[in-house]
Amino acid sequence: MKEQTTETTKVSQKVEKITQVREIPVIADYDVVVCGGGPSGFIAAIAAARGGASVALVERHGFLGGMATASLVAPISVFNYNDRRIIDGIPWEFIERLIDIGGAREEKPIGNITFSPEKYKLIAQRMVLEAGVSLYFHSYLTGCRKSEDGRLTHIIIDNKNGAEAITAKYFIDCTGDADLSYQAGVPMQPMKSELQPATLIFMLGGVDTDSLPMIRHSQQGINYHDIDMRKALEEINKQTKLPKFGGPWYCGVLDRGLALVNMTRTYANMADNRQATNTECLLREDVFTFVDLLTKNVPAFKDAYLVMTAPQAGTRETRRIQGVHTLTGEEYIEARDFPDAISRGCHPVDIHSSSSNNQRCEFLKDAAFIPYRCLIAQNFPNLLVGGRAFSADGISSASVRVQASAMGLGQAAGAAAALCVQTGTDVLDVDIAALRSTLIRYGANLSK
Ligand SMILES: Cc1cc2nc3c(=O)[nH]c(=O)nc-3n(C[C@H](O)[C@H](O)[C@H](O)COP(=O)(O)OP(=O)(O)OC[C@H]3O[C@@H](n4cnc5c(N)ncnc54)[C@H](O)[C@@H]3O)c2cc1C
User: Fold this and answer.
1) Mean pLDDT in the chain?
2) Both ends of the chain: CA-CA distance in Å?
């Protein structure tokens, strides 16, 4: 096997700095700006707009869905616990709209969602536009401006028009990597020495999807990987050193013959550009190695071929904010209820190792709660965080990071921002009773 290098981009050790002064046009003003149009971001934008706010949604890609569409992460986990819907409201409305056009199937009783990435993009964009949200696609959040009291005043985006500034009363950071919070100076959780690995998911065609094992992820308490292929890989690995792998996990996209494969992995801090670049290159090499092994070892892949790698390697873990409260694994696994609970989670604590092929998968004893205080940071009166970058330790975040719970956090952040617009309050002083009743009106399940 070809020796692989993990370093494709050489960087000068000497850091020279330049100062660039540029005039940036302020192009628009909104009540709420949401940065990042992934599962948490597009739901946050809809929730804020339905609460009466004027809303902009900024996304670096030309489509919505984040990891679900840009990284082909499937299935959407997980809406139910013991056959009871735990994540509800706008997130589930989105799934119903997707089901209506043949773009999703609920795997009962657990409520995992097998979906078509293209139909996902379509329904997400329809719902956002129907809510009256202004979309800024192909726009990279690159900076922000703060006033002396810590209040964010502008975000800076870069796109084909050059640099542009947008003002708003409230900002929601749904970038997954906490890009806006980081640029604003919000303290971050200590970076662990071993982050969960990055993975480049790929799509195979020519698959006998009727006989492919473990393609439907339906039951609670099961880790749906291909056990036979895993054993085969472990055997091969003893003779020939393979790249690191996980699973392998397979998922359909509702088209006969097509399947997504989640198995590549490497350590990377994907919030660092050079590491992200090197990771994309390394994992693309690994995909070709694994496609060859899958077609030789899995009968359902006998005639399979590579259709595509995901446009972007998937990121499981990077920065998380240090919020007013940090949700601990203990609180989460005990399913501790909070007076300011605004969303819930029911996926296992799912920690993939970056340094080995292993995974820790701990199933919950009950559906857990997430307090509002994990979405806000002390001294940042008009900033909320939705999705993966919320304030949590490595254990609780390893469950909440999945898409349904990320959507739940987005719904809460959007509703809170709209409430703040109505009342003129800081996010730190939001009326919790009013927020919870708004969320319950949206359909959220906040009761034990
Ligand atoms: C390999 C892998 C397997 C996974 N398996 C599952 C699974 O089986 N089930 C499941 O439900 N979840 C799974 N997850 C987790 C899940 O996909 C993510 O944690 C989830 O998508 C997080 O949602 P989010 O909205 O917080 O962030 P993201 O989905 O990362 O969305 C962030 C959005 O912000 C945009 N953005 C980022 N930075 C900027 C910027 N500076 N400017 C403008 N836009 C920006 C991105 O383009 C993206 O659209 C998996 C993740 C990975 C990587």
Assistant:
1) 95
2) 53
